[in-house]
C-alpha cells in the first residue's frame, strides 16, 4: 500500500468553450505532513475555475490530491503548488484554490490563491 | 412507466415585460446517469432569470428536468444544455443555471453557467 | 368572516425625509390561491424601501396582505402588483418586493421586483 | 373559488399491518381564522402515527387541512379536532398531532395532542 | 405611560378536558429590573403545561408578563413567582416555566421550575 | 443503460460478533416512482443495525437501492420492503430503516420501521 | 427604580485617529414603548462606525440605550434619533445604526440609517 | 493587575427551598494554564444544579472562575475541583459541571462531573 | 517521514477515582486505508468514557490514531479495534467509540461500539 | 508560570512572492485585561493578509497573542497595536485584523483595522 498515486492530472475537452462558466470542486479529504514535525495536516480544498479548452477529470484529481499524503508541505507552498499544477494541466481562463486547514496550536489557517 | 417525459418547455406571457425583475427557481430533484459508469447522479438545480416576453411554466419545467432521468450526461455538458434549452424557450434578458451535484469520489461539484 | 379586508394602504409622514435610510419588512403570512387549480399558495413577503415623504403603516400593510387570501394570483403577477400598490401609496425613493413561495411540484420559487 | 374542500379523509390499506411502524407527516401550510378577531392564523402541522389497518391518503389530507381555511378555530380546539378526525378515519394504534402557530402578540404557541 | 398593566391572568375553559395534552408558549419579550443595581434584565420565557379545566388567555398572559417591566426581581425568585401565579390561575395537571436570561457578567443563566 | 442493477445484497462476516455494536448508514440518493402518477419520488434512507453474523457490503447496498429507480413504490410499502430485504440478508440483532421523502403536495413524509 | 438613566453619551479619545478603522457594537437589549398603544417594543441595535477623534464609552452607551425604556418611540424615528445623538457626540467619519425589532402583527421590521 | 481574585463563593438564600427546580449557568470565559507546558487552556463551563438552601451569587462565581487564570490545572482535575468547591459552598440537591475545552493537538475534550 | 508512530497508549492516574464522571474526546483527523482498494478513508473519532484508575494522555492518543494512517482497515473492524486497545490500556468503567466516516459511494457510515 | 511569552514575531520567506494571494488566520484564544477594572476580556482574532517577502510563523504568532494575557488593553487600542506589530514584522502588501470580543455590559464589540 505504499506506492504514491499518480500526480498526472487528466483532462477532457470543455463541452462549451464558447462560453465562460464556472466549475467549483470541494474535496474535504486532503492530508499531507508538516515538514517541521512530520505530523499529519488535514485540509478541505476548494477549486473554482472557468475552463478554456479543458476540464479536469475528477478521478485523476482525486489521485493527484492523494499523492500529497506522504509528503512534507507548508500550508502556503502546497496551496500555490496545487494551483500551479492545475493551471499547467488545464490552462484555465481563471482559477482559484483555497486550502482550509484544521486548527494547529489554537490557530485555524486558510490560504487562497488566484490565477491570473 | 418507461416513457420519457416531454422535453418541451412551455411558457406563459410575462405579466410585467416593462420592468426588469428576477425569478429564482430551485429544484432539488434532478437526476441523470453518469455516461462512463451508467450510475445515477443527483443534483439540486437553481435557475435565476430576468424574463423578457415569456416566463417558464413550472409543470413543464418539472417534466423537462425529469426527462434527463434515463440519460447519460456529464456534469458540465448537462448544465450548459439546460441553460441552452431554457434560453431557446424563453429568450430571457439574463439567466443563470447552477447544478449542485452530490459527492462522487470524495469530491463535491457545482457548475454555474450564465447567459449572456 | 367572509368580508375582504381593506386594500387601502395607510401611511404616516416620514420622520426624517432629509436623509436616505432603509426600512425592511418581513411578513411570513402571505397566502393567495393558484388561478389554475384554486389551491392555496403560501409565501413569505420581504419589502425593502427608502421612504420619501411617507412610510407605510404596519397594520394597514397587514390588512392589505390579508386581502389576497381569497384571490387567484400567479406568482409573478402578484409580486409585481404588490410593488405597484406600495409604490402608488408611498412614492418611495427606492423599493423592492421579494415573494418566497413554498414548494410546488418539487420546485421552490422566489420572485424579486425592484423600483425604480 | 369559494367552495370548501372536502373534509372527508381517504385511507388506503396498511401494507404491513403485522408490524408496528411510524409515519411522520409535516404540513407547513395550515391556516384558519381567529374566532375572536376574524384574522388569519398560520401553523405548521406535524402528525405522527403507527397505522393499524389504514394509512391516510396524502391528497385527501391536504384537502382536509385546506378545509379549515375559512373557519374560525381556537388553537387548542382545532388541534384536538384534527386528532379526533384522524383517529376516527384511521383508528391508528398510536397518533400525535402538533400544531406550531406563528407568533401572536409576541407569544409563540405550540399545541401537542396524543392518542390514546 | 406609567400605569402597571394588569397582573390578572384570564382563562378560558379547556375545550378537551377529557384528554391530557400539552400547550407550549414562548415569549421572547420579558424584562424586569435587577434588585441590586436597578439595571434592566431580559429573558425569553417558555411555559409548558397540560391544562385541566382552564387554558390561559394569551392577551392576559402578555399583559401579565409586561407587568414585571418596572419591578425588581431576582432570576430564581421571579421564575418561581410566575409558575406560582400560573398554577394559581389555571390549576394545570402539569406545568413548567423556563426563564432564559441574557448574559450578565459573562454568565448566561437559565432557571427551570416544574409543577408539581 | 436500462438494465436493472442487481437486487442481491452481499454481506461479509461481522468482525466482532461477540459484541453488540451499531452501524448507521445514510444514503441521500434513493429514488423510485409514484405508482399512481408514475412521477419520480426522492428520499434519504437511513439504516441502523446491530449486526449478528453478517454486515452489509456497501457497494451491494448501493446497487440494491439503485434497483428501485424504475419501480413504482408507495412510501410505506417500500420502506417495509427494504427492511424485510435487509433482515433476510443479514439476520441482524436489531435494525431500523427510515425513509425521509421530499415534499409532495405540501406534505413532507418520513416512514420509520423497526425490527424486531 | 424610576429615575431615567442619563442620556449623556461619554467618549474617549480615538487611540488611532491617523487610520480609518471600524468599530461594530451589537446591543440585544433595547426596549421602548409604542406611542400608539403604550405597549413595549423590543429590538437589537447594531452600530457600526469609523471614529474620528472620539470613540463611544460602552457603559455610557448602555445607559443611553436604557434611557428609552419608558419612552414612546416610533421605529423609524427612534432609529434616526439614536444615529443623530451618536453623530452629535462622536462626530464619526462614517456611522450606521440598524434597529431590528421583534415581530408585531405578523411583521418583522428592521430600520437602517447611515451617516453621512 | 497581578492579585488573584477571591476564590470565596458567595451565596444567597434559595427563594423557594420547598420546590426542586434547576438553575443552569454557562460561562464561556474560563481559562487556566496547562501544568505540563505552561500554555493557556480555554474552556466554556456549564453548571446545572438543583439548589437546597443556597444559590450561588453570580459575581462571586465570576471571580471564582477568574481565580484559575494563572494556575496550572489538568482538564479532569480542574473540573472535579470546581464541582467540589461549588458543592462545598452550596450543598445543592444535585449538581453537574461540564468543561468544554478548545482543541489541543487536534483533539477536543469535554469533562462532565455529577454530584451526587 | 515513513516511521509508524508509536501505538502505545500512555495513561495518567485518574485524579478522582472516587467519583464516576465522563470524559468526551473528539478527533476529526483520523485516516486509514481501504483494505480493498488501498484508497484513503477519513473519519471523525469520538471517544466517551468513565475512567477508573487511569485517564488517557492526549498526546499518546494522537500518536495512536496517527499510527493507522498507512494501514488497511475496514470501518467495523477498526472501530472495534480502537475500543479494544483503549479498554486494554485504561480499563475504564464504561467506554464508547464512534467513528464517523466521510461518504463513500454515496453512503455515509457511522460505527458506534460500547464497553461493556 | 509567570514569565511573559516572547512578543517577537518570527517570519519565514514567502514561497511565492511573485503572486498576490491571501492567508487567513483565526485564533479564538485571545485574552487580555480591561485597563479600567482589571477584569479579563476575551476575543477571537482574525488576521487576513497578502504576504510580500515574509509570512508569519504560526508558533510565534501564538506566543505573541499569549503575551497580552496579563496586560491591560482597550479594545480599540489593542486591535490597532496588533496590526501595527504584524505590519512591522511582515511588511505585507495588504492586511486586516478583526478582534471579536465577548459581551460586556450587554454589548458585543468587534474592531476591524486595515492596512494600508
Molecular structure report:
Chain A is an alpha+beta fold. Helix content of chain A is 22%, strand content 40%. Chain A has helices at residues 58-66, 75-90; strands at 11-13, 21-33, 40-50, 54-56, 94-101, 108-115. The longest helix of chain A has 16 residues, at 75-90. The mean pLDDT of chain A is 93. A four-stranded antiparallel sheet of chain A has the order 2-3-5-6, with helices on one face. A two-stranded antiparallel ribbon of chain A has the order 1-4. In chain A, a hairpin with a 6-residue loop joins strand 5 and strand 6 (108-115).
Shape of chain A: globular
**Rg of chain A from C-alpha positions?**
15 Å
Strand order in space, largest sheet of chain A: 2-3-5-6
- Can you give the mean pLDDT of chain A? 93
By DSSP (H or I, 4+ residues per run), the number of helices of chain A equals 2
Separation of the first and last Cα atoms of chain A:
38 Å
Quaternary assembly: homodecamer
Amino acid at each position: 500500500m505504499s506506492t504514491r498515486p499518480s500526480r498526472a492530472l487528466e483532462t477532457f475537452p470543455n463541452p462549451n468553450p464558447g462560453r465562460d462558466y464556472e466549475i467549483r470542486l470541494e474535496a474535504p479529504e486532503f492530508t499531507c505532513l508538516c515538514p517541521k514535525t512530520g505530523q499529519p495536516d488535514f485540509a478541505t480544498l476548494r477549486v473554482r475555475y472557468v475552463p478554456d479548452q479543458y476540464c479536469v477529470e475528477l478521478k485523476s484529481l482525486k489521485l493527484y490530491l492523494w499523492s500529497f499524503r506522504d509528503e512534507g508541505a507548508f500550508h502556503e507552498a502546497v496551496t500555490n503548488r496545487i494551483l500551479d499544477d492545475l493551471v499547467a494541466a488545464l490552462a484555465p481562463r481563471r482559477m482559484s484554490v483555497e486550502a482550509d486547514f484544521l486548527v494547529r496550536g489554537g490557530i485555524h489557517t486558510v490560504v487562497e490563491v488566484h490565477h491570473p
